[in-house]
Input
Amino acid sequence: MKIRIVLASAVVAGAFSLTAIAISGVLSKEPVPPAIAEATLWTPDPLSMPQIADYDVTPPAAFHADNASPMRPLPLLQSVFAETALPEIEPPLITWSREIASGETLDAVLANAGIAAPARAEIALALGAEYDLRRLRPGHEITVISKVDGNPSRVELAVDDGVRIETVFGQELVTRVLEPDPEMVTFAGEAVIESSVFAALDKAGIPARFAVDMAQMLGGTVDFRRELSGGETMRILWREARDGNERIGQPELAFATLDLGETVYEIVWPDDGSGEATIYVDGEVLRVFAQPVEGARLSSVFGRRTHPVYGNVRMHTGVDFAAARGTPVKATAPGRVSFIGRRGGYGRVVEIAHGSDTLTRYAHLSEVPDTLEQGQRVLAGDMIGRVGATGTATGPNLHYEVLVDGRPTDPLSDDRLAEAAEREADDTAALERLAEARSLLAERLTSEFVQTTTERL
Output
């Protein structure tokens, strides 16, 4: 086909050429030379049609009809459906958390979280079944985890010592108490007194609350105002319950030394929870003393003061230790229970006689153990009640008095209790405890020094 088109094109082109030449010959005034005229008469020979060769094409044997495989219809593809249902996507949860402020109730905090009144009542009943809600205080924390529709999914109340009370909403309310499993870790530090014991401990990174314990233990032996002129050294060994990096509860003193230059005072606290401490002077037992409330803040001292309730100036016949309601109160020296009951503004009281002339009084108690009876013998460190606010009190605290021949004396300076405790002291065991405490303090101070030096390098 292409060849035919080419031939036709050539013939047409030649015809046009001849026509053009003829016209130019007619119009030209000059005669055409014979050679040119002869050349214009030439035409190419016609092209012959191409011949297509005949080939005997034989298909392969595989395609012969005799050998062909029979054709079968292809099976239809079957759809496979998964029997397992897609996982349900849980709606997101909203977390709200806040500490309880002074004067707030649980209901007020839950209302602030946007929980409806019926749910608040359920939560209060559930939490109250595991924890006395009257013991709520500032610093306790409420966490509410709610669904997007505002209904609570879980409510958690974090109280003292890392304890959490959790209420989970489901087909029914489930409440449980979650207690931490802390590890007891021992620390050591050294402080140089410049202005006060409190400031020295705080500057050295040692819990400053230990200043109260030192004043309570040595208040009747060392005059901190007159005998501390500056430059005195204190070394402290203490224990902390740790849950990871979080401290659980309050730190506990284990050993303390106060070097005044000419005299060295040392105090060893046992790790049995009794709170009974042994005081040494230059390596010899001076006395045994148990503080009434461990780690409490000394909120009011002995002497004249403006009464916090009545507003007038009157004699304060004891010392006050501010502590959380329910904190254990312990006997400060061995003796015999002489009174259990109520005494006017003192509220609920326990009194212990130490010999014939000395008596200790523990007031504003919230409760007294059922096992404690009048006439019963107690030892230093025995629990005799719990901190409360009964009687005339502005808040939970222990009012502690020492009376000699019926007259109040300063509990931090009287030696009568020391004499009562000293009669029951075991000097051999006490000296062994002192040697162990000194060794542990030296070991921990060395370890702290090496660690600090390594961190600086």
